[in-house]
């Protein structure tokens, strides 16, 4: 009997012989979340099922097992307790089951959608309680990164006196430890709107959870999903929404600090964030925003999930013009002699020189280079009169390590390097500007030599 049939027949289905299904709490492709009763203890539990369906991928099982292992190692009153892990192998139902303690509460998202509002002090209390959970996770060895903090993964019990209620952080299905990050393939997980820029490339640090928490709190105080708010240079623009409302200005600045798109400018740990929340302090002096140099013809396009740099044709410099001035008369002289004496060798030399001149002129006047960075990869292509070909082999975004500034801009990856914009007369100011933009977007450090 399948779970679907069981739910339609007063829940007679047993999972693992001892967990009686009572209610479906949620479902999505390949997964179900069920409320059940442990017949041995009579306690309510939550059973998360990973189904072996047509959409099953082994990467899903890897994350599912990591969630089970992480919960088993955690012990915190605001995090669900690990109860059991099962492999279910029945004729019509094959799946993996993670059993955890049941928490009687509604998600923050449900509270917000039902019209519940939070005062300035209540939002601060919510922030404090969640930061205390993150401090526990980040002090683990190795540190634990949730990677999917959002309103639907935060549970609240009903208000109690002056308290907002007990706060819980749930759904560790995207969890990652820093040790796991060092070990192998990085999987891009998270929820759009709450993910910091570096997480789109699979790069996560403890500060990544701070961004997600900050975006969640911005939703609480504005009532708007982060994707509904305007952005400027990847920063969520919410301050103007709060004009006229009694929101602590220090708290707004703190939220802006939490959601800095650049890792180098963001609060770095939950303990540092809690200290800054409880003892408001001026933010460290930020590096001045590096603007595009005057006269630069480089085109920079920034979107939520794409950064594109278009380097225009380099033009014909003094060296190229001098070379053309020398080769062109030589070409006509050789043409004259090849026609006069019908020399095959001179004809081939003519063709070679003509091809060289044509390439020099086309490259200088029409070839442009396009760098694109999306959620998955970085790619660089040449473009000439509508024809495109790879400048270098695309690289997974998760393989990027750091940037180097020399006479050129170089992106170092796990498998090699991208020497960007070689032989293009970009000024040092343009290179510095582009390096800063890439560093902010990718969360990569810059070394200078």
Textual characterization of the structure:
- The chain is of the alpha+beta class.
- The protein folds into four domains: 3-101, 2-Layer Sandwich (Phosphorylase Kinase, domain 1); 106-278, Transferase(Phosphotransferase), domain 1 (Orthogonal Bundle), CATH 1.10.510.10; 299-314 and 367-448, PH-domain like (Roll), CATH 2.30.29; 318-366.
- 34% of the residues lie in helices and 26% in strands.
- The chain has helices spanning 3-7, 58-73, 108-113, 120-138, 178-183, 197-200, 206-222, 249-258, 270-278, 318-341, 344-366, 428-442; strands at 14-15, 19-28, 31-38, 44-51, 82-90, 93-101, 106-107, 144-145, 154-156, 167-169, 176-177, 231-232, 235-236, 299-303, 306-311, 368-373, 377-384, 387-396, 400-405, 409-413, 416-420, 446-448.
- Strands 1-2-3-4-6-5 form a six-stranded antiparallel beta sheet. Strands 14-15-16-17-18 form a five-stranded antiparallel beta sheet.
- β20 and β21 (416-420) form a beta hairpin.
- The longest helix is centred in the C-terminal third of the chain and has 24 residues, at 318-341.
- The chain is elongated, with a radius of gyration of 29 Å.
- The protein starts with a helix and ends with a strand.
- Residues 1-12 and 182-186 have low confidence and may be disordered.
């Amino acid at each position: 009997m399948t779970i679907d049939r069981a739910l339609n027949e007063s829940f007679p289905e047993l999972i693992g012989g001892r967990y009686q299904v009572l209610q479906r709490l949620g479902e999505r492709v390949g997964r179900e979340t069920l409320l059940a009763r442990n017949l041995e203890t009579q306690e309510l539990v939550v059973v998360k099922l990973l189904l072996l369906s047509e959409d099953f991928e082994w990467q899903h099982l890897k994350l599912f097992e990591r969630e089970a292992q992480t919960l088993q190692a955690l012990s915190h009153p605001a995090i669900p307790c690990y109860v059991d892990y099962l492999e279910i192998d029945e004729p019509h139902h094959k799946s993996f089951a993670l059993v955890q303690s049941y928490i009687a509460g509604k998600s923050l998202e449900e509270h917000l959608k039902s019209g519940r509002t939070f005062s300035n002090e209540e939002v601060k209390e919510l922030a404090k309680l969640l930061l205390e959970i993150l401090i526990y996770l980040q002090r683990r060895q190795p540190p634990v990164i949730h990677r999917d903090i959002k309103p639907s993964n935060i549970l609240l019990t009903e208000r109690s006196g002056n308290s907002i209620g007990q706060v819980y952080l749930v759904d560790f299905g995207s969890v990652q430890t820093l040790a796991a990050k060092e070990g192998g393939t990085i999987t891009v997980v998270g929820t759009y709107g709450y993910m910091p820029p570096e997480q789109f490339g699979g790069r996560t640090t403890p500060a990544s959870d701070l961004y997600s928490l900050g975006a969640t709190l911005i939703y609480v105080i504005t009532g708007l999903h982060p994707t509904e708010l305007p952005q400027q240079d990847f920063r969520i623009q919410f301050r103007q929404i709060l004009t006229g409302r009694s929101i602590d200005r220090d708290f707004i600045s703190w939220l802006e600090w939490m959601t800095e798109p650049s890792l180098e400018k963001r609060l770095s740990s939950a303990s540092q964030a809690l200290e800054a929340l409880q003892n408001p302090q001026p933010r460290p002096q930020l590096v001045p925003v590096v603007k595009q140099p005057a006269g630069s013809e480089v085109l920079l396009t920034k979107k939520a999930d794409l950064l594109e740099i278009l380097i225009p044709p380099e033009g014909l410099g003094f060296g190229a013009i001098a070379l053309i001035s020398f080769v062109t008369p030589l070409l006509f002289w050789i043409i004259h002699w090849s026609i006069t004496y019908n020399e095959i060798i001179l004809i081939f030399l003519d063709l070679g020189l003509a091809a060289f001149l044509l390439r020099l002129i086309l490259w200088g006047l029409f070839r442009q280079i396009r760098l694109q960075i999306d959620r998955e990869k970085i790619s660089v292509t040449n473009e000439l009169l509508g024809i495109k070909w790879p400048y270098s082999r695309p690289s997974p975004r998760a393989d990027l390590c750091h940037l180097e500034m020399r006479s050129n801009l170089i992106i170092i990856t796990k498998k090699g390097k991208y020497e960007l914009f070689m032989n293009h007369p970009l000024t040092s100011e343009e290179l510095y500007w582009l390096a800063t933009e890439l560093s902010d977007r990718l969360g990569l450090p810059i070394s200078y030599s």
